[in-house]
Every structure is written in C-alpha cells, then in structure tokens.
Amino acid sequence: MDKEKAKKIAQTKSNKHRVSVKEYLKGVKTEIKKVVWPTRKELGSYTGVVLLSCVALSLAIWAVDSAFLASLKYVLNISF
User: Fold this and answer.
1) 78 Cβ contact list (under 8 Å, min separation 6)
2) Roughly how many angstroms between the first and final C-alpha of the chain, as a whole number?
3) Is residue 42 within 8 Å of 50, Cβ to Cβ?
4) pLDDT of residue 3 exceeding 60
5) 35, 51, 60, 67: which one has the fewest Cβ atoms less than 10 Å from its Cβ?
C-alpha cells in the first residue's frame, strides 16, 4: 500500500506544469496589481504601533529578567 502511495505522489509531482520565467513574472505583476497599499498616514500609524510594541515588549522582558536575576541572587545568596 505504501509503494502505491509513493508512486502516486511521484506521478503527481512529475505531472506538474512548469512555467517559464516570463509567465512567472507576468503572474507576479498581476498579483502586485491586486495589493492594496497603505496610505502615508496609515503607514505612519502602523510604524508607530510596531515601534511602541517593540519598546513595550523589550521593557517587559527586561523586567522579567531583572526579577529573575534578583530572585536568583536572593535564593543563592550571591552578589556580582
């Protein structure tokens, strides 16, 4: 049964239609035309959200790391 499945998979892979570079680039151009690009205002607000998210996540990781280090120092009674 496994050999039959392997043969079918091999056949479907070999039967796939290969496209030329010209056809591929034509398809890419068609898809790019469908993209809805953000306005300058939207782009600015999206950038702000990303930057604020990065800062918030960085601060949260720093706080957890500092708390973990402080607890290790307390438990192990060590200092740096």
Assistant:
1) 72
2) 64
3) no
4) yes
5) 35
Query: Nearest to residue 14, comparing CAs of 6, 22, 23?
Result: 6
Measured distance CA(9)–CA(40) in Å, rounded: 47
Q: What percent of the chain has pLDDT over 70?
A: 82
Q: What is the 3-state secondary structure (H, E, C) of the chain?
A: CHHHHHHHHHHHHHCCCCCCHHHHHHHHHHHHHHCCCCCHHHHHHHHHHHHHHHHHHHHHHHHHHHHHHHHHHHHHCCCC
Q: Is the pTM of this model over 0.85?
A: no
Cβ contacts of residue 80 below 8 Å, gap of 6+? Answer: 73
pLDDT tens digits for range 36-67: 999 999 999 999 999 999 999 999 999 999 99
